[in-house]
Write a structure and sequence with these properties.
Helices cover about 45% and strands about 15% of the residues. With about 250 residues, the chain is of the alpha/beta class. The longest helix has 22 residues. A 7-stranded mixed beta sheet has the order 3-2-1-4-7-5-8, with helices on both faces. It has a two-stranded parallel sheet with strand order 6-9.
Length: about 250
């Protein structure tokens, strides 16, 4: 156990980026669970002007705990844009590890120490539902079907070997985010998750999948929509076609 803590310490300070939009009821419990699992971690709440007062609650939490920080955005611009803003905030500071984690409880903070342990031998540790030991709990079957089919299609189109390429519980070494040009990322939702993992692979970084338990949110509504699915299909198809044209020499990288 001491060796694991020493290895984590060598990674540097951990920042967990938590995007929020109308997550007032979920925010307090998820941050409390995070600090119970990993007391030394910092949390950055990126709030997109939630009308339910999530941003105000985040400010109150930050005033009471120096490990909590808040980034306010004036409009709901999507998950991808919120993460990009949070990553930029982290890279402007001295964080060695930057983590993606949902506010709704679907990503268990209790799994985070294992992601960090895996990160000692990798550049991106991806919490995976679809490797041995991973599972989903209380998720509607149609959502799981979309996720699995989307993952299979993305792996085939891109030639990626990651089993859960749409997964959104990730721990990055800061060097990855410094190299993959996050400012150019325009995709959202599922597509954003595919985009970041694919960029990481393409940049030559080591990706490892860590089994997690993914639990459907108990409070609030999912932000999933048909537009998010269509965006992912379009962008992944475009990336896959470009990859194939590069392979046959029609276009250059």
């Amino acid at each position: 156990m001491a060796d694991q803590r020493d290895s984590r310490a060598e990674l540097g300070q951990v920042l967990v980026v938590i995007p929020t939009y109308n997550e007032r009821e979920n925010l307090g419990p998820i941050v409390a669970r995070l600090h119970e699992a990993l007391p030394e971690a910092h949390a950055l709440v990126v709030d997109d002007g939630s009308p339910d007062g999530t941003g105000q609650l985040a400010d109150e939490m930050a005033a009471a705990d120096e490990r909590v920080h808040v980034l306010h955005r004036t409009e709901k611009a999507g998950l991808g844009a919120a993460y990009v803003a949070g990553f930029g905030w982290a890279l402007d500071r001295d964080y060695g590890v930057i983590v993606e984690m949902d506010a709704d409880g679907s990503h268990g903070p209790e799994d985070l120490p294992r992601l960090l342990d895996a990160l000692t031998d990798a550049d991106l540790a991806l919490g995976s539902r679809y490797v041995p030991g991973g599972k989903v709990v209380n998720w509607p079957k149609y959502r799981e079907l979309i996720s699995r089919v989307g993952g299979i299609y993305s792996r085939l189109a891109l030639g990626a070997k990651v089993r859960d390429i749409t997964g959104g519980f990730k721990a990055f070494r800061r060097e990855v985010l410094e190299k993959i040009n996050i400012a150019s990322v325009a995709s959202q939702g599922y597509c954003f998750q595919i985009d970041l993992t694919w960029r990481t692979i393409e940049a030559g970084f080591e990706v490892v999948e860590v089994p997690i338990t993914f639990t459907e949110r108990a409070i609030g509504q999912s932000k999933m929509s048909g537009d998010i699915v269509r965006e992912a299909l379009w962008r992944v198809t475009k990336w896959g076609v470009r990859r194939r044209l590069e392979q046959v020499g029609v276009i250059k990288r």
